[in-house]
Specification:
- The chain is built from nine helices and 15 strands.
- By secondary structure, the chain is of the alpha+beta class.
- The chain folds into two domains: 143 residues, Fructose-1,6-Bisphosphatase, subunit A, domain 1 (Fructose-1,6-Bisphosphatase, Chain A, domain 1), CATH 3.30.540.10; 107 residues, D-Maltodextrin-Binding Protein, domain 2 (3-Layer(aba) Sandwich), CATH 3.40.190.
- The strands form three sheets. The protein has an eight-stranded mixed beta sheet with strand order 4-3-5-6-7-8-9-10, sandwiched between helices.
- Strand 8 and strand 9 form a beta hairpin.
- The radius of gyration is 17 Å and the shape is globular.
- The chain starts with a helix and ends with a helix.
């Protein structure tokens, strides 16, 4: 087994373990939700799940670095760095909505090579490693290849965004309006679930005006290996550009042109 494939299997196992931990708090009436400095929500489940993943990484790969949303950064001593979001979609999680996930990405010398999206309440996982394809597993079914759709027209595309107000707060209403009007349908099944849908051919593209590195890192290899694309709004293939577009690839340039007119 190659080193990369071994690390992918480790990431999938660990994401599922962290996801199971978050389910202990899901839909509990006594769940307390705090606000961080940027006014985004955080819960005990977020912090504990990230601590669990961090412990597993440090035990298995003690020289690797870690960048997490909740617990900060541990420098790498070997060029490997894990990038973690224990609950992507905390607002959904806190309200008892099942569209939240655990994200684990792995960077090697600046390039993201492994990504996992695990949706614990939906019991499905989408994962990939560079050169090893993208895979989709639902419950205990055998993994199947994850592939983007072949839709080549915006008029036939399912468009998703996490929150329309995110566009409005940044004066990007015109971009959102044009994408909505030109697309076949628009849904706000956001956060990492939207990107899982694109990677498995159930939707065509997602646009997010604000993304942190831990929101985006895991998505990069998944969409690429599934035949799609992930870039920032400027078209750069990066996970730290502050925003993001994930698509089936066929529509990517047209989406970027619309965003460039903002």
């Amino acid at each position: 087994m190659t080193e990369l494939k071994s690390r992918l299997e480790f990431a999938v196992r660990t994401a599922r373990e962290a996801g199971d931990h978050t389910l202990r708090y899901f839909r509990r009436p006594d769940l307390e939700v705090e606000s961080k400095a940027d006014q985004s929500p955080v819960t005990k489940a977020d912090r504990e799940a990230e601590a669990l993943v961090t412990q597993r990484i440090q035990a298995a790969y003690p020289d690797d670095g870690i960048l997490g949303e909740e617990l900060g950064e541990i420098p790498s001593r070997n060029g490997y760095r894990w990038i973690l979001d224990p609950i992507d979609g905390t607002r959904s999680f806190a309200r008892g909505v099942p569209l939240f996930g655990t994200l684990i990405g792995m960077e090697v010398n600046g390039g993201i090579t492994v990504g996992v999206i695990h949706m614990p309440a939906c019991d499905e996982t989408v994962y990939a490693a560079k050169g090893h394809g993208a895979w989709w597993q639902v419950r205990t079914e055998a993994p199947r290849p994850a592939r983007v759709s072949h839709v080549r027209s915006l008029a036939e595309a399912h468009f998703m965004c996490t929150s329309p107000e995110g566009f409005a707060k940044r004066g990007l209403q015109s971009s959102l309006q044009e994408l909505m009007m030109r697309s076949g349908s628009t849904r706000t099944w956001g956060d990492c679930y939207a990107y899982a849908l694109v990677a498995t051919g159930r939707a065509e593209f997602v646009v997010d005006p604000v993304m942190a590195p831990w929101d985006a890192a895991a998505l990069v290899p998944i969409l690429r290996e599934a035949g799609g694309a992930f870039t920032d709004w400027g078209g750069e293939a990066r996970f730290d550009g502050g925003n993001g577009v994930g698509s089936n690839g066929w529509l990517h340039d047209e989406i970027l042109r619309i965003l460039a007119r903002r």
